# Entry
Amino acid sequence: MINTKQFYDYLVSKNLDFFVGVPDSLLKNLCACIKENSDAKHNIITANEGNAIAIACGYHMSSNKYGVVYMQNSGLGNTVNPLLSLADEEVYNIPMLLVIGWRGEPGKKDEPQHVKQGKLTLPLLETMGIEYMILEDNYQEQIDKCYQYMQETNKPIALVVRKDTFEEYNITKDKNDFTLTREQSLDTIIKQLNDDDFIVSTTGKTSREIFELREKNNQGHSNDFLTVGSMGHTASIAFGLCLNTNKNIYCIDGDGSFIMHMGGLAIIAQNPCDNFKYILINNGAHESVGGQPTVGFNIKIDEILKAVGFKKVYKATTEEEIKEAMDKMNSMEALIIYTKQGSRKDLGRPTTTPIENKKAFMKKLTK
Ligand SMILES: Cc1ncc(C[n+]2csc(CCOP(=O)(O)OP(=O)(O)O)c2C)c(N)n1
# Structure
């Protein structure tokens, strides 16, 4: 295993001291170390991974230095366009060091949403013409080689990071003043719904907690579409559903997910559907992957939603306020719930497959 701080220090000693990206579960120790040791100008947590590539391009052009872009391999898809039409050697030819967490590595057990992405991670990099190395204990040598490659070719290069590569780095999650947990809010939301209401929930622990709450309540899972992958697209899935049903569709989003593809909500609000119910759980963090901050508490999400066309946005910090808001919520109104960070240590994962989930959901929705 690699000592996380020593890895970080080595990068910085090579003048690779600008970090930009979206946090990842496999990189959570590295992300925590970067956050603790870099100031705000040297660690930009971006809305999505494509933005990170573009920022690294701009950074290089003004500094002649190389940005370090961190991400989970799930985010590779978000990077394809800026890597191929901006950084690529046949376009602007801009170097940067990509550090990619390898979920779903072939031969290792992982969740369904990571399996194909894991299998295609190296082929995808090869197809895009991006050189890579799998990060090993001789990381100093590897970083030296990457540096030399960037100097010689002006091209991006990647370090692919296997599970359990980095040693534990003490993660200090930001504290906020809210008292509700995400799971308590979800419990309250679910209790407000009836058997004819449907949920589309976001990537990460939100969907895992909904699954377990339904188990606990013996309610089955056919009212819930658990978006295990495809972070940031939950609201659009819910909107697509609304186009062909009169049933209430409750989209339960996270602040990181909302911010990742914020533009989606503008299109949804401009094509209003009476049955689209938007609930955003804002904990100001990418809690599911280690608690790295989002800008969720710094921006006025309620004002953004109103500006794009939502008629009213309720805010709740207690179970009582959630119930009141859900009783009142009308067509094209939204609810933001503010919660603290944290989840149960023994939180499980859905035991049904995504295809089983989809089939049961479709059957019930179209009954
Ligand atoms: C495109 C993409 N990038 C990164 C990830 C890794 N990831 C999974 S959940 C998550 C955090 C989601 O944050 P938020 O929506 O605020 O929900 P929270 O975890 O705080 O409940 C991240 C970054 C991913 N699954 N997909």
